[in-house]
Specification:
alpha+beta, 13-stranded antiparallel β-sheet, 25 strands, disordered C terminus
C-alpha cells in the first residue's frame, strides 16, 4: 500500500511545483522580450516611415541609401569680415540679419541621427520638427546652405541640404499618414491653419534642394506635395484661426517657385484669393466672426513672407499696415504706444503691441509699405528714432555680438538621440525675411527720412498738418460687401484724435466688446485719455468679462440691470441685428448706430438670459468736429420691462503697469500722472467711492494734457473700480459710470433714458506740434 506523504512533504511538493511554474513563466517572458516583442515591433507599421503610398516607398528608399558622410556637417563658426562689406547698405542688411539668425539645431545634431536606421526606432519614428523640446526646423536648416555670405562656411553644403530634405520628407510622409488615419483631431477638424504651417516649411526646403535630387525622388516628393495641397484646398480656409490660415501663403509662393506650372500650382494659385478673404476690408484679420488686432500680428508675419512674390498679398499687407498705423497712439513718455483692443475676440494686446512682432517682420513690411515706415523710428515699446537705422559702428558691434551667440550654439550641439516625431505646425519665427528680400536703397532712405524728420517717421496722429478723417474700410470702395461696410472711423483734429468702432462682434461665447462706441480719445500731451480694451476673453472669469462684471467691462457702452436682476449691454450687440450710418464731409463726421436688446433678439446676445422680454433698443450718435466729440445715447423701451440700473460707461485709461514703471524715462517717481475730478458748480472735487449728483463735467488730467467730459445737463456720476489685464498686457483703467435713471428705490419703467455730452481736449493745440523733446526722438546717433 502506498504511503501517504506527511503534511510537511506535501507542502514541499507544492512549493516545487510552484517553483517550476514560475521558472517556466520567467523563461517564457524572457523569450517573449528577446524574440517575440522585436518581431511584433518590426511588424508594427507605425514604427517605420509610411509605405502605404508609392511615393513614400521611393522617398524611404532614397533615405535608406544615405550614409553618415551624406549628413556630415563641420561645426564651423561664422565671422564678421568687415573689410569685405562694400558699403553701409550692405552693413545694414547684415545688421538686419543679426537681429534674427535662423535656428541652428539642424546643423549641430550628430549626423547619425539622420540615418534611416535611427529614424525608425523601436519606439517610433524619430524626427522632432516644430516648436517643441529638441526640435529642429528644416526651413531654418536649409537656409544656411543658401546664405550668400563670404563668412558662411555652410554655403552650398550638401550635408546641410540632405539633413533639411530628410526632415521635410519625414514630416510630409508622417503628416500624410496622420491625416489618413481617421483618428487625428487635426484631420478630423479639417485644420487647414495647422496644415498650412507645416506646408510652409516643407515647400521652402523643396524650393532650395529640388535641383540636387534625382528625378524619381523629385517626382515622388511632388506627389506628396500634391496630396497635401489637395487636402489643404478641401479643408480650408476653415476660419477657425484665420491668422494661422495665412501661413499657407508662404507655402504657396515657395511651391510655385519650385514647380512653376502644373496642377499643384493651379490649386495653390486659386487658394490665395480664398485665404485673403479672411482679412476684413478694413485691414484686420477676422477671427471667430469678429476682429483680432493681436492675432493680426501673426497674420502679418505670414503675409510678409509671401508679399515680395505676390502683388495681391502685398496689397493686403499695405491695407493692414494703413489701419495699424491709425490705431497706434503714442504716449507722452516718449517710449510707449497703445491703442484700442476692446473689439478683439480672444486677446487683450493692441495693434501697436501685437503678437509675433519680430524686428525683421516690421523691417520687411516697412521696406515695401510707406504706411509702416514709422515703425523704423518707434511705433512700439523699446524702439527709438535710431532703432531701424543705427550708425555703422553700432551695427558692427551688434553683428559681432549676434555672430558670437550663434557660434556658441553651434559649439554646443544637443546630445542624445532625436525625439519622436509629432505633428507640430509652429515655425521657429527666426527666418529673416527682411534680410532675404532686402530692398536696395532702403538704408539710405531711412537716414534721409530721419534727417529731415519726414512725416512718414511718425504715426499718423503725430504728423501734424491739417489732420484727417478716415473710414476703414474706405466708404468709397464699391467692392466692399454691405455687412463689411463699417468698422472704424479715425480722426485727427488740431487738439485731439479719436477712434470709433462699429464693426463686427464675435460669434463665440467669449465675445469681444462691440456694439459701436468710442474706442479712443487721444491728445498730444495727455496720450490716450479714453481707451477701450479687452482681456483674455477665452477665460471670461479671469478677465472679468462675465455678466456679473458688466460695470467694469473696459469699453464704451450703455448697460445695466433689468428689474429681474439680469444684466444687459450694448457691447454685446452683434452686427447682424444692428445698423450703422456714417457721413464724412467738410472736415467733420457723424456716426449713428442702433440696435435691439432683449430676449427676443437671440442673435444679439446682448442680454443675460431672460433679462429683457419687451422691445428695448439703443441709439447712439457721434458728431466729430474740431472742438471735440458730441455723444448722445438713448435707451428706448416699450414699457414692458423695468430697470434697476442703466449706465453710460466710458473707459478711462490710466497706464500699463508693466511698461510704465515709476522712475523710467518720461515717467515720474509716482508713475503716470493721472487724476480724475468731478465739477460740481464751479468746484472741482476728487470723486468719492459712490455716485455723486449734480456733476456738470469730469476733468481727466494725464501727463501734461487731458480732456474734459461736459454734460449737457448735470448728471449722477461715479468713478468705478480699477480693471486690469493680466494676460498679454498689464493695462489698468477705471470706468466712468453715468447713471441714466437717477436715485430710485424700486426698479423703474422708462420709455427713454438718455444722456448728451461733449468730450474735448483739455488744452487745444494748433496741430503742428512735434513730439516733445526728450520723447519720441530720444536717442543717440
Amino acid at each position: 500500500m502506498r504511503r501517504l506523504a506527511s503534511p510537511r512533504y506535501r507542502w514541499q511538493d507544492a512549493c516545487g511545483i510552484a517553483f517550476c511554474r514560475q521558472s517556466v513563466a520567467a523563461a517564457f517572458l524572457l523569450l517573449w522580450a528577446a524574440w517575440v516583442c522585436p518581431l511584433l515591433k518590426a511588424a508594427d507599421p507605425t514604427l517605420r516611415l509610411p509605405q502605404e503610398q508609392p511615393y513614400q516607398i521611393v522617398l524611404r528608399d532614397h533615405l535608406q541609401k544615405k550614409t553618415v558622410s551624406d549628413y556630415a556637417v563641420p561645426f564651423l563658426g561664422i565671422h564678421l569680415h568687415g573689410k569685405r562689406i562694400r558699403n553701409e547698405e550692405a552693413l545694414h542688411r547684415l545688421w538686419v540679419l543679426s537681429l534674427s539668425f535662423p535656428d541652428t539645431a539642424g546643423l549641430s545634431r550628430s549626423p547619425e541621427g539622420f540615418l534611416l536606421s535611427n529614424i525608425e526606432s523601436p519606439e517610433g519614428v524619430r524626427m522632432p520638427i516644430g516648436r517643441r523640446v529638441g526640435a529642429m526646423y528644416p526651413d531654418d536648416t536649409v537656409w544656411w546652405s543658401t546664405w550668400d555670405y563670404h563668412g558662411n562656411p555652410y554655403r552650398g553644403s550638401r550635408g546641410v541640404m540632405n539633413r533639411a530634405f530628410a526632415m521635410a520628407a519625414v514630416d510630409m510622409m508622417m503628416l500624410d499618414r496622420l491625416h489618413e488615419s481617421g483618428s487625428d483631431w487635426v484631420a478630423n477638424g479639417r485644420r487647414s491653419d495647422f496644415l498650412g504651417g507645416s506646408l510652409a516649411r516643407i515647400c521652402y526646403v523643396y524650393r532650395h534642394v529640388r535641383g540636387e535630387l534625382p528625378g524619381e525622388v523629385q517626382e515622388a516628393f511632388e506627389v506628396g506635395l500634391a496630396r497635401l495641397f489637395q487636402r489643404l484646398s478641401q479643408w480650408g480656409p476653415t476660419a477657425v484661426n484665420d491668422d494661422m490660415d495665412m501661413t499657407s501663403l508662404a507655402a504657396i509662393v515657395n511651391v510655385k517657385a519650385a514647380l512653376r506650372t502644373g496642377p499643384t500650382v493651379e490649386i495653390a494659385d486659386a487658394y490665395i484669393a480664398r485665404v485673403l478673404r479672411l482679412v476684413h476690408p478694413c485691414g484686420m484679420i477676422r477671427d471667430a466672426g469678429g476682429l483680432e488686432c493681436s492675432y493680426n500680428g501673426i497674420a502679418l508675419n505670414s503675409l510678409i513672407e509671401a508679399a515680395s512674390e505676390s502683388p495681391e498679398v502685398l496689397q493686403t499687407v499695405r491695407r493692414i499696415s494703413d489701419l495699424k498705423g491709425h490705431l497706434n497712439l503714442p504716449e507722452p513718455d516718449g517710449a510707449n504706444y497703445f491703442g484700442p483692443s476692446h473689439f478683439s475676440t480672444r486677446t487683450g494686446a493692441d495693434s501697436a503691441n501685437d503678437q509675433w512682432s519680430h524686428p525683421h517682420r516690421d523691417i520687411a513690411i516697412a521696406m515695401r509699405c510707406d504706411e509702416a515706415l514709422y515703425l523704423m523710428f518707434g511705433g512700439r515699446a523699446g524702439r527709438g528714432p535710431f532703432w531701424g537705422a543705427p550708425n555703422p559702428r553700432d551695427m558692427r558691434d551688434a553683428i559681432a555680438r549676434s555672430m558670437a551667440h550663434v557660434n556658441v550654439r553651434l559649439a554646443s550641439p544637443p546630445q542624445g538621440q532625436l525625439e519622436l516625431w509629432q505633428e507640430n505646425h509652429w515655425s521657429s519665427g527666426a527666418m529673416n525675411v527682411a534680410y532675404d528680400t532686402y530692398v536696395p536703397g532702403f538704408y539710405e532712405r531711412l537716414v534721409a527720412l530721419r534727417e529731415r524728420q519726414d512725416p512718414l517717421c511718425f504715426p499718423p496722429v503725430h504728423r501734424g498738418g491739417t489732420g484727417y478723417i478716415r473710414a476703414f474700410p474706405d466708404e468709397n470702395d464699391d467692392d466692399v460687401l454691405e455687412f463689411d461696410r463699417h468698422a472704424f472711423v479715425t480722426a485727427r483734429f488740431p487738439g485731439y484724435a479719436c477712434i470709433l468702432y462699429s464693426g463686427p462682434t464675435g460669434r463665440t461665447s467669449y465675445m469681444n466688446f462691440g456694439g459701436a462706441g468710442l474706442s479712443a480719445f487721444w491728445t498730444p500731451d495727455g496720450g490716450s485719455i479714453l481707451l477701450g480694451r479687452n482681456g483674455h476673453s477665452v477665460e471670461p472669469e479671469a478677465g472679468r468679462q462675465t455678466w456679473a462684471d458688466w460695470r467694469v467691462w473696459p469699453t464704451h457702452a450703455i448697460g445695466g440691470v433689468s428689474g429681474t436682476g439680469k444684466a444687459f449691454s450694448s457691447a454685446r450687440v452683434r452686427g447682424e441685428v444692428s445698423s450703422v450710418d456714417q457721413e464724412i464731409r467738410d472736415g467733420m463726421a457723424t456716426v449713428v448706430t442702433s440696435g435691439p436688446l432683449g430676449t427676443r433678439f437671440d442673435k444679439g446676445r446682448a442680454v443675460e438670459n431672460g433679462a429683457l422680454t419687451g422691445e428695448v433698443s439703443y441709439v447712439r450718435r457721434f458728431d466729430l468736429g474740431p472742438k471735440g466729440i458730441v455723444v448722445e445715447t438713448h435707451l428706448e423701451s416699450d414699457g414692458v420691462d423695468s430697470f434697476s440700473e442703466v449706465c453710460e460707461i466710458l473707459p478711462l485709461f490710466i497706464h500699463d503697469s508693466r511698461l510704465q514703471i515709476p522712475g523710467r524715462p518720461g515717467i515720474g517717481p509716482g508713475g503716470v500722472p493721472h487724476r480724475v475730478r468731478f465739477q460740481i458748480g464751479k468746484t472741482l472735487v476728487d470723486p468719492p467711492s459712490d455716485f455723486v449728483d449734480g456733476v456738470s463735467a469730469v476733468h481727466v488730467d494725464r501727463f501734461g494734457g487731458g480732456a474734459v467730459i461736459r454734460f449737457e445737463t448735470p448728471q449722477r456720476v461715479q468713478l468705478g473700480e480699477a480693471w486690469s489685464d493680466s494676460y498679454q498686457t498689464a493695462v489698468v483703467l477705471k470706468n466712468l459710470l453715468i447713471d441714466l435713471l437717477g436715485p430710485h428705490e424700486q426698479p423703474l419703467k422708462v420709455s427713454d433714458a438718455s444722456v448728451r455730452y461733449r468730450i474735448e481736449p483739455l488744452e487745444a493745440r494748433d496741430g503742428s506740434a512735434k513730439p516733445r523733446s526728450g520723447g519720441y526722438w530720444r536717442g543717440k546717433k
